[in-house]
Each structure stands twice: as C-alpha cells, then as structure tokens.
Here is the input.
Amino acid sequence: MKELCLIIVLAPLVGAVLAGLFGRSIGRAGAHWVTIIGVGISFLLSAHVFQQVVLNDVEPLNTNLYTWLDTGGISFHVGFLIDELTATMMVVVTFVSLMVHVYTIGYMHEDPGYQRFFSYISLFTFSMLMLVMANNFLQLFFGWEAVGLVSYLLIGFWYKKDTAIYANLKAFLVNRVGDFGFLLGIAAVLMVCGSLDYATVFQAAPGLVGKTVSIIDGHEWSLLTLICLLLFVGAMGKSAQVPLHVWLPDSMEGPTPISALIHAATMVTAGIFMVSRMSPLFELTETALSVVLIIGSITAFFMGLLGLVQNDIKRVVAYSTLSQLGYMTVALGASAYSAAMFHLMTHAFFKALLFLAAGSVIIGMHHEQDMRKMGGLRKHMPITWITSLIGSLALIGFPGFAGFFSKDAIIEAVKLSSTPGAQIGYYACLFGVFITALYSFRLYFMVFHGKGRMDHHTEEHLHESPAVVWVPLVALAIPSVVIGAIAIQPMLFGDYFGASIFITEAHAKGLHHMAEHFHGVLPFMLHGMMQPPFWFAMAGVATAWYLYMQAPHLPARIAAALRPLQRILEAKYGFDAFNEMFFAGGARGTGGLLWRFGDVRLIDGLLVNGSARLVGWFSQLLRGVQSGYLYHYAFAMIVGLLALLAVFVHKVIA
Amino acid sequence: MQLDLPILSICIWLPILGGLWVIFAGSKLGEGMVRVQALVISIAVFLISMLLYQDFDPTTAAMQFTERMTWIEAFKVEYHIGADGIALPLILLTTFTTILVIGAGWEVIEDRVNQYMGAFLILEGLMVGVFCALDALLFYVFWEAMLIPMFLIIGIWGGPKRVYATIKFFLYTFLGSVLMLVALLYLYRQTGSFDLAEMQAVALTATEQKYIFIAFLLAFAVKVPMWPVHTWLPDAHVEAPTGGSVVLAAIMLKMGGYGFIRFSLPITPDAAHALDSFMIALSLIAVVYIGFVALVQQDMKKLIAYSSISHMGFVTLGLFMMFQIYANTGNWQDAAMGIEGAMVQMVSHGFISGAMFLCVGVLYDRLHSRQINDYGGVVNYMPKFAAFMLLFSMANAGLPATSGFVGEFIVILSAYKASFWYAFLASTTLILGAAYTLWMYKRVVFGEVRNPKVATLTDINGREALILGTLAVMVLLFGIWPAPLLDMMHVSVEHLVEQVAQSKLSVARL
Here is the structure.
C-alpha cells in the first residue's frame, strides 16, 4: 500500500510539473490531459485505499518514506499515515479536484494562462494530499504551507488585477499569522514529546495532563492547553475563523474553480482536519475545547449575517463557507469530531457544487457577478438552476439532503455537549440555520427567479453552459443529495473512524446518546422535521421568498430602517479597516520609525559618522597644538614638568 | 579513490594564481578568452573541492585533509590548514558560488574584464583560506587580505556612491579585525604558538575570556553583521556590482558565524556562557527590528540586504542559545541542534540571498534602477524570470520545501527549548519575512505595467536561466532533503559542543 500511496501523491505532481514547465510544448489539450489523468489516477487509487481501510478494515498504514534530517538526536521524517480519517479526506480531495479539473476546461478556455492554471491546481492536489497523508507534524506543516502557496498563486492568478494581487498577499500574510502560532505549537510538542511523529506524540499525551508551564512569571498554564491553543491558531488561519477570517472573502478575486476547490471544499477544511487529527491532544484539555467552541460559534453566526448584505454572487457563497466552517469548528469544540468530519465531507460536495454553479452563472452572464443584474436564469440555464437548488437545499439542511444529516448532527451534539460554552454554541448554530436559509434562498431567488435585470445584449446570449461545465455540477449534485443518508449511520454512530479519532468517555456521552436514539435514516428525518432547526430553516426560506419574490421593495426599506446595523454589516464589522490601519499601517510606521531614527539618525548619524566627525574634530585640535613655534613647545614642556613634580611631591607627602 | 593531493591548498592557490594569470595575461588574451578561462578555472576549483566531499569522513571530528609546514619559524607561525564538518560545507559553498558569480558578470561587465574576473578568483582563494586555516595568524592574513579584492570590486565596478560605501565597509570591518589581532596576540603569548587547537585548549580566567570574547565579538559581529554594527551592509550592497553583492551575502557574511564557531565559542566558552543573554538579545533584535526596517525599504537591494541581516540573526541565535537550552533540558544534544540550525541557515542563506541579488541584478542590467517604484508588471514581459524570483522570494520567506525553511525551523524548535519568548520573537520572521519579501514581489512583478520602460524588458536569456536554475535546484534540493548537509556536520558539531561544555575555569593553570 505504501507504493500505492506514493503514486497517489506523485501522479498530480507529475501532471503539475509537465503542465507547468512544458506547457507550451504540450499545448492546452496536453496540459489538461496530463493533469486530469494524474488526478484521475489519484482518485481511483484513493478510492481503492478507502475501500481497503474503511470498508475492509485493513490495518492503518503508518510508514516513513525517508529521513528528512537528523539533528539533536531527533529524526524528522516524511511519511504516510493512512487511517480512516486520512482515507476519507483523500477521497474527498481527489474527487472534488477531479471535478474541478474537468470544469476548468470549460471555465478557463479563453484564458491565456490555461496551462499555468492546470499546473497550479494539480500542484494543489499534491500539496493537499501530502497534508492529509502526513504521519508527523513536520510534513503536516509542509503541506500546510504548500497549500497556502498554491492558494496565493491562484488568488493572484490574474496578476494584472490590483484587487487580486492585494487579496493574495493578504491571504498569505493572514495565514502566516496562523502559522506563527502553529509553528510555536509544533515547537512545544517537540520540546515535551521529543518527537514530531503523531504516534509518539499521541502516546505521550496522557502523561502531559496536569503539567504546567510558566510563560509569564507567576502565571502557571496548563501545558496541554497551551499546545492545543497554539495549534488551533494555525487552524484559525487556514480554516478562516474569526478574527483570522478576513482573507477568505477577498480570496474570491481568484478564478471560480479554485474558489470551489481550495476556498470551499478542501484547503479551508485543513484546520478542521488538523484538529480532528489532534483529537488525542484536544480531548485532554477542556479549556482549549471551550475556546474552539466559542470561536466557532462566533464565526458560524456573525459571518453568516454578513452573507445577507452581499450582492456579489461569489461573496455570498464565500460568507456561507465561513459560517459553515464555524459550524464544523463548533462540532470540534463539542468533541463531536466525527460530526465535524461528516459535515466537512457533505459541505465539500455541496459547497463545491454551489461555487461551480455560481461559476456557470458567471460564464452565462459574461463575467457579471452582481446579483442585482441577474434574475430569471432558470429559463436559460436549467441544469445550473436545478443543481443550484439541490446545492442550496443541501446547505440549508433540508431533510433528506446531505447537509441535513451533518448539520443536525452538529446541532444535536452541541446541545448535548458538556464543554463550557456549549449553550452559546447551540444558539449560535440554531439561529445560524435561519440566516443560512435566508441568504441561500435570497441568492437563489435573485439569480434564478423573478424578472431578468440584465441588459438586453446579455439576456439574448444567455444559454446553458457546455457539458464540461455541467457534467461536474451533476456529478457533485448526486453526493450532495445522497451522501448524508448513506454515511450518517457508519460515520457518526458506527466504528467508521476506528482509532483515528480519540474521545474521552466523558465527552462521548452526547454521541452515545444520539446513537441510542438513532433508529435508521427515515426516523431520523421524521424526528428532525419536528425539531427547531428544521423550522428555522423553513422560516428562512419563507422569509427569502417573501422579501425577494413577493415584496421586492421591502429589503431596501428594512435596510433603511436598520441603517446602523446595515452599516456595520457592510463594513464587515470593521475588521478590514482595523487591520489595514493598525497592523499594516502600524508595521509600516514602526519600520519607518526604526529605520529613520534607529539606523539613519542614531547608528549612522550619531555613532558612525559621529565618530568620524569626532576624529576629525580631535585632529583639528591637535593640529592647533602643533604650531611650530619653539616657545610654545618650551612652555608646554615646563607645564608638564611642573605637573609631574606636583604629583611626585603629592605622593611623597602622602 | 584516494588521491594524495593537497586538495585544500589547490582550492586556495589555484584560484589565486589563476586570478593573477587572468589579470596579467588579460590584455593579450582578449575579453572573450578571459571570461572563458576564468570560468574554466572556477569550475575546475569547484570540481576539485568536490573531491573533498567525496573523501570526507563524517564519522570523525578530527581535521581532515590537513597540511602543515612551518611558515615563520621565529614566531612559530605555520601554514596549517584542514577542514572538518563545519568548514567543509562553507568551502563548497564558496567554490560553488564563485562559478555563478563569474557567470553573472559574463556580458554585463565590459570595463576591465580581466581585473574583475581576476579579483573574484583571488577572492575565492582567500575565502577558502579563511575557512580552512588552522593557524590563527594564517587565518588573520586571509581574513584581512580578503578585504582588498572586495574593496576593489565595490570601488571600481560599483554604483555612484561607491566611495562612501567602500570606506564605510573597510573601516567597519578593519576596526573590528584589529581588536581580533590583539586578542590573537594575547593568546599567542599564553600558548606560545598560533596553533588554533592550542588556543582552544588553553586555560583562561573569566576576565581574560571576557576581554578576548569582546575583541572577537567586534570582528565577527561586524561581519555577520549583528545589530547595531550592521549599517555598512546595506550601503555596501547597494553600491556593489551584482557579483560583489552575491559574494558578500552568500559567503563573506558567513565568516562572522564561522568565526564564532571556530574562535569565540571554543576559546572563550565561559565568556560565551556569561554573555549569552546579551548575544541572544542582539540576535532577536536583528530578527525583529531589522524585519520591520526591511519592510519600508524602497530600494530592492537595500531590502534584501536588511533581510540578510534579519536572517543572519537566526545564525547567532542558534549559536548562543546552547547554554540556556542545556540549563533547561540538561541535554547537550539539544544544544547541538541550535548550532546545526545555524549552520544550515548559513548555507541556505548563501543560496537564497545570492539568488535574490542575482534577480535584482537581472532587472538592474535591463533598466538600471533598483527602485521598487520603477517596476510593476514585470511578469507581463518576463514570465520565466517571475517564476524564478517567486521561488526565491518564497524561499526567502522560509517556505517549507525550500532550504530557507530548514535553518529557521531548526532554530525556532531549539529556541523553544531555551525560552518560549525566544521562539516567539524568532517566529515573527514568519510574518515579517513574508511581508517584506512578498510585498516587494507584488510591487515589482505583479500588476499592470506603469512604467513604459518595463514594456521594453526581455525575459532572461539562456545564461541567466542556467544560473538561476542551478540555484533553484539547490534551494529545492536542500529543502526537500537536507539530511546530507546535516550528516556532514553532526560529529564536528558534537565535538564543538563538548569543547564548549567544558568550562575552562576549572582547569588548573600550568
């Protein structure tokens, strides 16, 4: 299986290198074929591995490929850990990636950077696979930063666009803030465990309970809490949790296929995956779990609200992604890792679908993204319309659709959780459901229903996108409907994850309780329909329908009536303005200050050139003394002699 | 195959003699031939130096390839050279970089080609000499002699303010070195010889050690350069021709770190111990303070120069944390980790800073400007160049899978063992390094073309692609598989740690 895994990661890399370095000679078709074949191989083999590990219960593989380096008596490796958690991620990543590859043929066919784009997305697939297949923190960090690099490249893919190159720098730097914490966390792990291999670290974890460290004198902190919080800072960057979420909406400046692949389905879920992977550490510290839960709640609720005031179709979906990532994080905080992973999987399918559908709309609209200029598209783009509807229903958690099962599981798990702050999490998630339904169907109604608000020219040319675009939509729509019903029983209540996720007995109570009351998919659905989340979702849909179909003049009046609130939402709570002023401006100001006063004035001006001037001044003085007149010298000699005499006399007397 | 050749001497004297030959035969040979011969010599030296790598025995800390003969009988000065796992990587870095530098000046330098090529070859020999001298006076001679070709390179082929820059460069480094000479003479009086091994073994009181340490510190800190004696570097870089900047950043800065390893730590271990907090503080100031300063630079070369200083902060941090790490963990192996991180950082910085200066050189050769504002949208006309520069910028920002990550990573990991706050401050480079490097990249390479001159740019030619490509391979190779580099130095670093761990105060004075 080791060889298989090697092929899985290397196939996309080979594709990326061929398309990237020899793009011109192999041509456009050559570039998309090599990368699609590469990712295709990866997907088929991943499916095989999935079947082996998850369905046939083959022993997880934990093996080292090579020694990266030895130092200080510690070996750092590159290697694979293939267990249920990894196998799930591998299938999700390669499947969505394959769909996005195919879709890109249609979406990017006019772009001069066609080959480059295929090279990047294949490189991304390689990096993401390295991340999820790692068996140690080092390689995790490798993959972590590598996906960040590709994200940087792809957000700035249209490098002439000012907003794009602003957004990619911002994304990279904000992620680096997260990595800053992550790296410190890794350093702490190495210090206390003496190794970066997951197996060793997880084995040592129970022994760390109760140990404390003192970072600021006089304050003792739990060691495990510190480690977990530092690691979680990394997850906050990558998975865009408040306050490190600011890069994700701007990342929509990149081409739509990567918004689907990287900024919705896969890369942004790396943080969720990482915390799940680290469950043997997080489980041992209530404080860290509580922080995770609260941060997740804030993200889930407040980022959803922002989706309500966006008019750019991609940005609505982007804020929805933020909010859904918040849901997953809440689940992590409630120790419901399996629910988080479950939602991660269903979300990957339906959110990739929503993004690609939005992309299809954007193609049809000749790269217009403003929803206020759309409307009535269902007549022109039937496949895009139906698949969007499926995606939206899955997102709001309509019974039977994939999102229903995973979201209900999260809300239920939070309700039953004993993590401090779970109450807040529960209400954030619950009200979040209403908001999700409202913004989703606001988008849906504004785009696909009502009268067309586009100009005449655009309307005449509206037609369904080509097959390379809609086939992936259909391929993603299928799991968006069925995957929830299929996977809920094994993933949540079965032994799906085996030993790959660790939950302490006390924290597992909620899930056990849910398992006891689970009597099959249909009863679960019927039960769900009598629960508040369902009614909140329906209320959201109804509100959207009323506001945007029945009384389209109302939203503007409500906005006017709630002007202050509207302003806050449009300013995105002021995060961007604050960061731009305080951090970006502050750093530049500090730099300028240190440079001009520290380096130029103090060191160079005073010390370096100052000593040069001092030497010059002293020489001037000496030159004055050497006058050349004999009586001056004679006078100096007499004075000197007298002085010596004085000292001598003084000494004798003393 | 064990050839009984004095390989180290060849690596020192072949380039020096070759350089003299190129200078004096230059007018007869013609410019074309001078370039070819200089390149052939530099490649020959590199291949010969690879014999060192091939024959090197990484299982012993003893000096290898040693050559020893009397030089000045009366003062017991010897021509004594050799290499261990600490010197070897730096020697190879020197011979490797020189080829690139000769190539980088190929068609760019049109004025006094023979002298230019000759100066770099001579410089190469002297630098190899610094890294393998085992006699303190021999070391000092190479150390000072090295300044002369560098002084000329900046002074003759440099930019408009080259006179100010050369004098500043010369005075700074020379003042530091003079104190080192005083310290060496004092040690000579104590040991009766200039043999480095004897100096490392001699017992010294705490006070003696402190004075010697500070004398060494001035010499080495200027070279590294450490804050606050760093201000000569940006000026020197800005005025130096591309090749000069590359050698300066890639190799000459490493001599400071090498000096700490070879002299300060083993000769004055107790002083190093006593002053380690001071050294760590200076290193962290370099990382953070200089990171901020780099952010606001408008001149690309200045920015990279400041970035060098910040990155070299990791070297000195890695070297001087060992006592505190040992105090915390009680394990000298952990202390060795910091030193190895520092070594890796030096080698990797050689590749990356060299590559960054070459990239700026490529742009400067075309537009004759180093100002960031004069560029923008370069990728539209130079896509290949943009790809290379992206790789090196990412390496400069410490991206994993590039060599730039390895040293920083190891140093941060071991810094945590000394103190959370050291690791915290050192890790700010993750953000600052990315900020200044990628912000510059964005303003230079991305965006619409604003300056019409940018539209006249032509992409890199075969020669430039070969040079940058070679560096790209090295940067990636040592990022993906740094083990061979570290395996070379393990035993020597362990030996160093043993030496330093042994306090000199307890040994009775004979």
